Amino acid sequence: MNNSTSEIELIYTVIYAFGAFFLMAIAVVVFIYYARKKIIQKELEKKNLEIAYQKEMLNAAILTQEKERKRIARDLHDDISSKINIISLNSHFLNVKDLSETEIKQITSNIIDVSAKVLESTRRISHDLLPPIFEEFGIHVAIEELCTNYSNGNLLEIEYQNPYKQNVFDEIDKNNHLHLFRILQELVNNSIRHGKATKIKIELNKNKSNRILTYEDNGIGFDDTYESNKKGLGMKNIESRVEFLNANFKIESVVNQGVKIVLNF
Ligand SMILES: Nc1ncnc2c1ncn2[C@@H]1O[C@H](COP(=O)(O)OP(=O)(O)OP(=O)(O)O)[C@@H](O)[C@H]1O
Ligand SMILES: [Mg+2]
After folding, report:
1. Residues having C-beta closer than 5 Å to ion ligand 2
2. Which H or E element spans position 138?
3. Which of the residues 101, 134, 239, 261 has an alpha carbon 20 to 30 A from that of 190?
4. How is the chain split into domains, by residue range?
5. Which of 229, 242, 249, 259 for mutating ligand 1's site (highest number of atoms within 8 Å of CB)?
């Protein structure tokens, strides 16, 4: 009798143990299932954010391209077509019979003047598209030229420090040089236009694996955070160029103390 009671107890214990074990196993499986679901959900959210960011960048690139096309079209229309019209008109005047010598002189001088202006405009438009110095002497000299062109006595002083000169750029893919140049161009434009800066400093340094470009201005700084200032295309374009460079980008700004940007590439 005693024996059979303990046997039953043993059977119950085993059943309880199995039951507990079974419940625990189910709990573990459910936990793993939900944990995995959460991880997948998080990854999905991250991917969606990445896609949205890429879409925004692509959109910014397309908008800039359109803006650039409009600017070129306007330049061609206002600066080139209109002047060639004047030349064409004056050339027709030369065909008119019985022109006096003074009239011929006046018309010819008009044609010469306007042709010179067309040449100057063509030069300016093509330089805007790609600074010739860039192709001829490389990005280092192009940055030097950019600084000289914008520097303006006491009103704006741009300092460019790069002890490695062109060598520091030669270590990176040549296709990326134009990205770097355009980034600097936009930063300088913004410092002047928005920051009202009077001093800008561009510095290039490097360590074993990276090159570090530090850009500083003494302007009014972003009026709130950088994120809330990101309305224009300029900064978005900088961000996509930074992606092309596979670089790291950090912005610091204090109101009324200017902007500091560090680019690691
Ligand atoms: N150096 C700076 N100092 C102060 N504010 C700045 C500076 N750079 C940018 N900002 C602020 O950030 C905003 C966004 O700059 P961003 O270059 O993206 O656009 P934008 O210059 O207004 O227009 P776009 O570059 O498309 O012509 C600017 O409108 C300005 O408010
Ligand atoms: Mg801008």
Report:
1. 190, 232, 234
2. none
3. 134
4. 2-129, 138-264
5. 229
